[in-house]
């Protein structure tokens, strides 16, 4: 395994007071629980894009208690492992964001470890301490996890994208389904003893295609490729030259060089390989962006896949993001890429800011069209370089069918739909032909423009899209619109602002369809809508009729949920 793992073992042998944690946990017990509600610690403490008030400190204490942890027992020597301490651990379950959960044998104190999987016994070093748990870095696997499979991707052990490729897909599904259930019970305060809730919780919908399902990938250029620790010691050097690939987990300034990604299409991989073959040529004079010195020309390579609506054949957009406005410099790369038949669009987004975003202030079309197309639920959508579109097209079709089923449309064209966080209008437009009118709200101006264009493209005249910040709603919000029969809300990871929840509870639409990409904030919002917020004198008015997890992204910890709430 390399010198790092050996050093970890020496630390254990030389430190007489180091304990073995979780060693007495029975294998059958671990296998029976693929997830623990310690996950709800992570959204608060370890997720960058969720505010600290997503779940209260009382919720943290309660969810830690639910794991059997007695973190107040400070008399136990093994209660609080020290930072830098090297431990032998057993992973019991998977938590939020796919981290492995281990516990102190005597006290149940929780330790979280990235890339540890249920049943795996390993050597780990404590890297970070929190009030209710600690974080551990895995140094060496002693015995492998349950449901082990060989990861087909050569980068699976180091790339931050597919953390569970070497866990069987059936085990991934089981863990995700259990995660949603436990979060809704412990954070949402829904009771397992309530037969109504038991009937509402549905089994997870699997993804039939586990590889090559992404229609969008973004790769970054870097001045020096990141080398994993074990490879670094084997090669005795960290110099691997310019890099084009994905960011190393936890680092904004380190790029793992990637020549092929199994999540994108074969044609997209062909483009990636073509760029990799030539962009480092000194004669071309390209330099990668350096996030520290704020110098360099090439920032990102974005690849988007779609389909020609007339032929059904795949089509590909290539987007070079550069730090300065000089599209002619890209001509040698364009000439190479255009030999690939699926490439129908090459654009250049110019982003002169020092930030790492791929959205440019200016865009040039270097070859072919400025947009590509895709079909979803019988509608056609134009996709530009920066427009939002569901990343897994085939699974999005299934997701939208579930949303349509939850709407229980009468079919007489009499209903009003309020589509919150509507993005480019995909959900609302798929329902528009069966309702009286769709009103969509979205904060991103370009997305609103795309939604209007998509409505025109599909000859839909009963959809209105409005630019507005749903985190800043006031008493006059939507007051000039007819009362909706159905509300669809699809917030980003932080969930809905309390002001919006207050608006919905006052509105009292017959049905709310909550589409979530974050089960932790989803559970919190379901609790508010069903049980209210007593400290703000808000009474809940809904019952949870259906909660359907959907696996949109195999081999990752991400989960989508479709929830139906009906007015009591």
Automatic annotation (TrEMBL):
Active site (UniProt): 517 (nucleophile)
Please report a single Pfam family linked to this protein. Answer: tRNA_U5-meth_tr
Question: Which keywords does UniProt give here?
Answer: Methyltransferase, S-adenosyl-L-methionine, Transferase
Q: Where is the TRAM domain?
A: 80-140
Which residues does the annotation say bind S-adenosyl-L-methionine? 390, 421, 442, 490
- Presence of keyword Transcription: no
Q: Name one GO molecular function term.
A: S-adenosylmethionine-dependent methyltransferase activity
In terms of PANTHER family, this protein maps to:
RNA M5U METHYLTRANSFERASE (PTHR11061), TRNA (URACIL(54)-C(5))-METHYLTRANSFERASE (PTHR11061:SF30)
> Could you say which protein family the record assigns here?
Belongs to the class I-like SAM-binding methyltransferase superfamily. RNA M5U methyltransferase family.
Q: What is this protein called?
A: TRAM domain-containing protein
- Which species does the entry assign this protein to? Capsicum annuum
């Amino acid at each position: 395994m390399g010198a790092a793992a050996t050093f970890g073992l020496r630390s254990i042998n030389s430190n007489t007071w180091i304990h073995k944690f979780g060693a007495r946990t029975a294998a059958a017990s671990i296998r029976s629980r693929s997830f623990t509600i310690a996950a709800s610690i992570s959204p608060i403490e370890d997720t960058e894009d969720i505010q600290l008030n997503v779940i209260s400190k009382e919720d943290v204490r309660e969810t830690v208690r639910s794991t059997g942890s007695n973190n107040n027992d400070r008399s136990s020597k093994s209660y609080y492992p020290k930072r830098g301490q090297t431990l032998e651990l057993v992973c019991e379950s998977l938590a939020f964001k796919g981290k492995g959960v281990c516990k102190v044998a005597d006290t149940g104190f929780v330790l979280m470890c990235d890339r540890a999987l249920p049943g795996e016994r390993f050597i780990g070093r404590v890297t970070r301490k929190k009030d209710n748990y600690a974080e551990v870095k895995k140094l060496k696997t002693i015995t492998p996890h349950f449901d082990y499979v060989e990861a087909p991707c050569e980068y699976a052990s180091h790339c931050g994208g597919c953390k569970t490729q070497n866990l069987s897909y059936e085990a991934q599904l089981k863990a995700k389904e259990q995660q949603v259930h436990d979060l809704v019970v412990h954070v949402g305060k829904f009771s397992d003893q309530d037969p109504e809730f038991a009937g509402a919780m549905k089994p997870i919908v699997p993804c039939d295609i586990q590889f090559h399902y992404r229609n969008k990938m973004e790769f970054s250029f870097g001045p020096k490729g990141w080398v994993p620790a074990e490879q670094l010691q084997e090669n005795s050097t960290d110099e691997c030259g310019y890099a084009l690939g994905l960011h190393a987990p936890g680092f904004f300034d380190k790029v793992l060089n990637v020549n092929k990604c199994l999540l994108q299409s074969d044609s997209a991989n062909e483009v990636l390989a073509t760029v990799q073959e030539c962009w480092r040529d000194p004669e071309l004079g390209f330099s990668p962006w350096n996030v520290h010195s704020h110098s360099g020309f090439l920032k990102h390579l974005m690849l988007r896949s779609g389909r020609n609506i007339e032929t059904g054949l795949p089509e590909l957009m290539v987007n070079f993001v550069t730090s300065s406005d000089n599209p002619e410099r890209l001509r040698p790369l364009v000439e190479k890429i255009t030999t690939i038949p699926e490439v129908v669009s090459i654009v250049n987004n110019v982003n002169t800011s020092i930030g790492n975003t791929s959205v440019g202030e200016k865009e040039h079309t270097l070859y072919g069209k400025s947009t590509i197309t895709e079909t979803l639920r019988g509608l056609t959508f134009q996709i530009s370089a920066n427009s939002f579109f569901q990343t897994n097209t085939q699974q999005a079709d299934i997701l939208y069918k579930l949303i349509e089923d939850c709407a229980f449309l009468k079919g007489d064209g009499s209903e009003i739909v309020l589509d919150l966080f509507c993005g480019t209008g995909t959900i609302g437009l798929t329902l528009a032909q069966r309702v009286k009118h769709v009103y969509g709200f979205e904060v991103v101006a370009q997305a609103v423009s795309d939604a209007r264009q998509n409505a025109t493209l599909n000859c839909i005249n009963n959809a209105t899209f409005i630019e507005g910040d749903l985190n800043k709603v006031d008493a006059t919000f939507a007051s000039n619109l007819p009362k909706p029969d159905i509300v669809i809300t699809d917030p980003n990871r932080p969930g809905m602002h309390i002001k919006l929840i207050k608006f919905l509870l006052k509105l009292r639409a017959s049905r709310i369809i909550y589409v979530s990409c974050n089960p932790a904030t989803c559970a919190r919002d379901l609790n508010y809508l069903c049980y209210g917020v007593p400290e703000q004198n808000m009474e809940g008015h809904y019952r949870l009729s259906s909660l359907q997890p959907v696996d949109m992204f195999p081999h990752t910890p991400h989960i989508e949920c479709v929830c139906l709430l009906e007015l009591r």
